[in-house]
Amino acid sequence: MANKRWTLIISGKVQGVYYRASTESTANEIGVTGYARNLPDGRVEVVAEGTEEQLGKLRAWCQKGPPDARVEDIEMAEQVATGAFSGFGIRR
Fold first, then answer.
1. 73 pLDDT band (50/70/90 cuts)?
2. Is the pLDDT of residue 1 over 70?
3. Which residues contact 63 (CB under 8 A, 6 or more apart)?
4. Distance between CA atoms of 75 and 66, rounded to whole angstroms?
5. Cα(64)–Cα(89) distance, integer angstroms
6. What architecture does CATH give domain 4-82?
7. Which of the residues are catalytic?
8. By the 8 A CB rule, do 2 and 49 touch?
9. Can you give the residue ranges of the Acylphosphatase-like domain (predicted)?
10. Where in the chain are the domains?
């Protein structure tokens, strides 16, 4: 099955609540590659590559996030996977 790349822009109370660190841990458990980073406007960007099933699991987790997060919306864009990532990490 071919890998895909999804870019998720998560809005709500998602900064200062360990959202990126929790996303990194979850992504590594699921087996996707990519990164999570804070955006200047208070949202979090998650770029992930994996199978559609893996990406679906990550998106489902992102909809809830860690306990202190309050996710209001997720914007999603799908691209062709590039294989540019060797793992999943946090970008600053």
1. very high
2. no
3. 71, 74
4. 18
5. 19
6. 2-Layer Sandwich (3.30)
7. 20, 38
8. no
9. 5-92
10. 4-82
CB 59: neighbour CB atoms within 10 A? 16
The string of pLDDT tens digits covering residues 4-57 is 999 999 999 999 999 999 999 999 999 999 999 999 999 999 999 999 999 999
What is the full DSSP assignment across 4-69?
A: EEEEEEEEEE-SSSSHHHHHHHHHHHHT-EEEEEE-TTS-EEEEEEE-HHHHHHHHHHHHH-STT-
User: What integer pLDDT is reported at residue 57 of this predicted model?
Assistant: 98
Pick left, alpha or beta for residue 65 (phi over 0 → left; psi -120 to 50 → alpha; otherwise beta): left
Residue 50, CA atoms < 13 Å, CB-side half-sphere: 23
Q: What is the identity of the amino acid at 25?
A: S
Rounded CA gap, 16 and 48, in Å? 21
Q: What are the structure tokens assigned to 74, written together?
A: 């997720």
- Please report, as a single letter, which amino acid is at residue 56: G
What pLDDT is attached to residue 81?
A: 96
